[in-house]
Write a structure and sequence with these properties.
Shape: globular
Radius of gyration: 21 Å
Strand content: 5-15%
CATH class of the largest domain: Mainly Alpha
Number of helices: 25
Number of domains: 4
Largest sheet: 4 strands, parallel
CATH architecture of the largest domain: Up-down Bundle
Structural class: alpha/beta
Helix content: 40-55%
Distance between the termini: 54 Å
């Protein structure tokens, strides 16, 4: 079967790989597997051979292609800066084109993610099963193993799911101060809406207290799950829908506290390389999107009273989609270091992936846990009371890691800590 246009588009990029091997020293997955197929130069070699017709799509190719975390650590440490993450995604798209995408993934990417109302119904059903203990029964019976070798092990990553989501609570929240200084479009991420709505509430509270009038976007998923899996058609469909929604909002900026969402929104232009009209729209949108700490670091008052009764030792984990995808590193640290009552301590290997990577911790549980264990060892070294991050996947994964390791460290989003420290409203 001839290679697709999507795959051919990255031939020049994969050809930039000079096989030097510097990616080996930094790849979290190669560190575990010691398998050349797991590292960037292995991925690039596979994709290049697919394009040149020297390699066939088969089951042996699936694991190397889909076990990549897409963390971009290799890109950051590559002399020619080969976009291995982009090459891997195009390889995944080609694999699915030839082998066929599982029906459940097609349903998720094309039917659920673009429709948040429908998505809410299915998540609520999942919450009923999770909170009633049904999933524990299913796990005990081994039923989850029918769907994947690691699903039964991953069942405990999330302790409990809320029955009321953030969008259900919007009517109860204050969305504007008495004298607003700016209008902000708040992009609601799926992870915070459906799993961690209390984080979204803290974010809204902080943004309003900083003078923003909030307008809640009627957005759907940002499209990252579909894109990461290689379903580029679904990702483009979602991107076009969100661009329509966000362009119609009369706001100064689009802000989200989800690092994955802000990274994806800023990268929409990569989805439309052969579509000049939509690429232009995506470029304009990217200029209006800001992550939470990116926004707060520029709008924080010089002096604001704190309401903390004791000193907190705090450390920070850099989400991959924040530090390497967006280059946002100094901003969250500046916010944390400027907080009264906070003793900031740098986390060793702070920018090393925690192993969440979307659904990676579910589909590749054992590898994900080994990546997470290294992260927890570093957290323990800091002696921190609070571990801060800026991504729902990281929040969930790190909370699970703390429970697994028996640590007393509390995992929080930076917006939660800000609300707690400055306004005495613990989440």
């Amino acid at each position: 079967m001839d290679s697709s246009k999507e795959l051919l588009s990255v031939y020049d990029e994969v050809s930039k790989c000079n096989k030097c091997g510097f990616c080996q020293a930094v790849c979290p997955i190669f560190d575990i597997t010691k398998d050349e197929r797991s590292v960037a130069r292995g991925h690039n070699a596979h994709v290049r051979k697919l394009i040149e017709g020297k390699l066939e799509v088969n089951k042996e190719l699936k694991d190397p292609l889909f076990e990549c975390l897409l963390c971009r650590t290799c890109v950051a440490n590559c002399f020619p800066a080969v976009r291995t993450d982009k090459n891997v995604i195009r390889g995944r798209a080609e694999y699915m084109r030839q082998v066929g995408q599982p029906k459940i993934m097609t349903f998720l990417f094309h039917r659920l993610l673009p429709d948040q109302a429908r998505m809410a119904k299915y998540v609520r059903l999942g919450a009923l099963g999770k909170n009633s203990g049904m999933t524990k029964l299913v796990k005990a019976l081994g039923i989850l193993k029918w769907f994947g070798k690691d699903l039964d092990k991953a069942e405990g990553i999330i302790e409990r799911l809320p029955m009321r989501f953030f969008r259900d609570r919007v009517g109860e929240l204050t969305l504007s101060p008495s004298n607003p200084s700016m209008r902000i479009g708040y992009f609601v991420g799926c992870g915070f809406n459906f799993v961690l709505p209390h984080v979204s509430e803290a974010t809204v509270d902080v943004l309003v207290k900083l003078g923003a009038e909030l307008r809640i976007a009627d957005n759907c998923c940002c499209g990252l799950p579909a894109y990461g899996y290689g379903d580029l058609e679904a990702a483009r469909k979602i991107a076009r829908k969100n661009m329509d929604i966000l362009e119609a909002m009369n706001v100064d900026l689009i802000v989200t506290e989800c690092a994955s969402c802000s990274a994806m929104l800023k990268d929409y232009e990569e989805l439309f390389e052969d579509d000049p009209a939509n690429r232009k729209r995506a470029e304009a949108l990217a200029k209006r999107v800001q992550g939470f700490s990116e926004f707060v670091s520029a709008h924080m008052p010089e002096e604001i009273p704190a309401r903390v009764s004791r000193s907190l030792k705090v450390t920070f984990h850099d989400p991959c989609h924040l530090c390497r995808y967006q280059g946002i590193v100094k901003e969250p640290r500046a916010v944390l270091q400027g907080m009264p009552g906070v003793e900031y301590v740098e986390l060793p290997e702070a920018d090393r992936c925690c192993g969440a990577a979307g659904s990676y911790n579910i589909l590749h549980y054992e590898q994900s846990m080994r990546v997470l264990d290294r992260k927890m060892e570093n957290v323990q070294r800091t002696g921190a009371d609070v571990l801060i991050t800026e991504c729902p996947g990281c929040c969930i994964q790190l909370s699970y890691g703390v429970r697994r390791a028996g640590l007393s460290t509390r995992v929080m989003h930076i917006s939660q800590l800000m609300r707690d420290v400055y306004w005495g409203s613990p989440c």
